[in-house]
């Protein structure tokens, strides 16, 4: 006899998805790869078993549809992403697809049709791991897909457009899955918090108030490669040392201001030989805040510092903005409904902002959005140590089912 109504099967499904990876050593499932297809096919089968019609859309998203009681029923969409970062945990994104799927399976088992249609979406490329540019799938559904993204390239020099073609999709048609404004009544995303707040407060679930806006920039510093043994220290144009000065400035500038954070997650020194002074350094900048003005002021200061360091070190720099999202408030009416759903489970809750970006923010131009956060162990995420409690998964799914069954469109 399973211990839980939902969590046993959900955790087994999450384990199964966690094994679909580009590497046998860690979880990494990126956009438009065989693993993307395998994961979507696996979830598509679970959707069919739950009585859903399944579609793989023009952008590479997976869409499951559980029709409402009437043909003109409004659509409540729920979901999250099925792609991962490199060396990922197995709950970031996936939980937000498996949970609404479990809710629909329960409705299907009981033969229940609601006054609204439910769509469960497994979004593609929320993380942007392969091409740097992220949110391609949810942008396409929201009608904000930027074809310039098709020019971004992966480490092998393959463009997103070429990857779409190799995947069997027409890059010129990516945006054709855009939904008409008004066609989706609301979007609800369940997601692990990916931070320590809920756990520190002893809470299993929280209601998200707003989702931080992020800017992602690729920085290229070009100096002069040289012999490590012969070029005197005062005559070098060392691209990596310039980059190192900038990295520590990012930390200094982004420390001490409430929700402002700055991260350099990727760094490459070229040509990458022990006895060669790096002629080139390429690194990523990720700057976020709950207010766009705070984020943009920090970004401007970092760009100014990059120019100063490069001038002093006689090296060149090139900045390429890969992604920008705006800080997104969640819908007050949906927040209240989410809070009411949590309280029906007899547990306390709180409201909190999201420092992480989510598909929900991308969908905000299309429809009212809301998120429920679920506690994760020590707040760890983007790390194989990501972990959840089965009791919390059960509670979160029962809450989501209550939200879904009692959903009313909001203005
Ligand atoms: O980067 C983020 O905030 C999210 O994990 N894509
Ligand atoms: Mn993530
Ligand atoms: Mn995520």
From TrEMBL:
Pfam family, one: Peptidase_M20
Record keywords, A-Z: Hydrolase, Manganese, Metal-binding
Cofactor(s) the record lists: Mn(2+)
InterPro entries to which the protein is assigned, alphabetical: Amidase_Cbmase, Bact_exopeptidase_dim_dom, Peptidase_M20, Peptidase_M20_dimer
SUPFAM superfamilies attached to this UniProt entry: Bacterial exopeptidase dimerisation domain, Zn-dependent exopeptidases
CDD domains: M20_bAS
Peptidase M20 dimerisation domain boundaries: 210-313
Subunit architecture: Homodimer.
Family, as annotated: Belongs to the peptidase M20 family.
Record protein name field: Allantoate amidohydrolase
Classification lineage: Bacteria, Pseudomonadati, Pseudomonadota, Alphaproteobacteria, Rhodospirillales
């Amino acid at each position: 006899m399973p211990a839980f109504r939902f969590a046993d099967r959900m955790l087994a499904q999450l384990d199964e998805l966690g094994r679909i990876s580009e590497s046998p050593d860690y979880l990494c499932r990126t956009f438009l790869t065989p693993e993307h297809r395998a994961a979507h096919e696996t979830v598509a089968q679970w959707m069919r078993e739950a009585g859903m019609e399944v579609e793989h859309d023009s952008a590479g998203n997976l869409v499951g549809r559980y029709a409402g009681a009437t043909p003109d029923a409004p659509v409540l969409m729920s979901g999250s992403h099925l792609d991962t970062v490199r060396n990922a945990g197995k709950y970031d994104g996936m939980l937000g697809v498996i949970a609404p799927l479990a809710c629909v399976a329960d409705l299907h088992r009981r033969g229940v049709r609601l006054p609204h249609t439910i769509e469960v979406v497994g979004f593609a490329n929320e993380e942007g791991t392969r091409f740097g540019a992220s949110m391609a799938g949810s942008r396409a559904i929201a009608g904000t897909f930027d074809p310039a993204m098709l020019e971004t390239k992966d480490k092998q020099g393959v463009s997103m457009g070429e990857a779409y073609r190799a995947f069997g999709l027409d890059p010129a048609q990516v945006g054709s899955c855009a939904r008409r404004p008004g066609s989706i009544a609301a979007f609800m995303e369940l997601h692990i918090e990916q931070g320590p707040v809920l756990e520190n407060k002893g809470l299993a679930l929280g209601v998200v108030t707003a989702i931080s806006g992020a800017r992602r920039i690729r920085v290229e510093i070009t100096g002069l490669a040289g012999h490590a043994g012969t070029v005197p220290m005062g005559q070098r144009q060392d691209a990596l040392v310039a980059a190192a000065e900038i990295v520590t400035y990012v930390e200094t500038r982004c420390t001490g201001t409430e929700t402002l954070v700055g991260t350099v997650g990727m760094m490459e020194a070229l040509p990458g030989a022990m006895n060669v002074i790096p002629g080139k350094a390429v690194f990523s900048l990720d700057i976020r805040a709950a207010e766009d003005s705070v984020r943009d002021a920090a970004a401007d200061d970092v760009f100014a510092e990059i120019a100063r360091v490069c001038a002093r070190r006689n090296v060149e720099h090139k900045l390429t903005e890969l992604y920008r999202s705006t800080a997104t408030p969640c819908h007050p009416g949906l927040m209240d409904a989410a809070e009411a759903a949590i309280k029906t489970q007899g547990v306390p809750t709180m409201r909190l902002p999201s420092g992480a970006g989510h598909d929900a923010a991308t969908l905000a131009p299309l429809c009212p959005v809301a998120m429920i956060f679920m506690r994760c162990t020590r707040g760890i995420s983007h790390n194989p140590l990501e972990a959840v409690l089965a009791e919390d998964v059960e509670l979160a799914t029962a809450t989501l089912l209550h939200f879904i069954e009692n959903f009313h469109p909001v203005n």
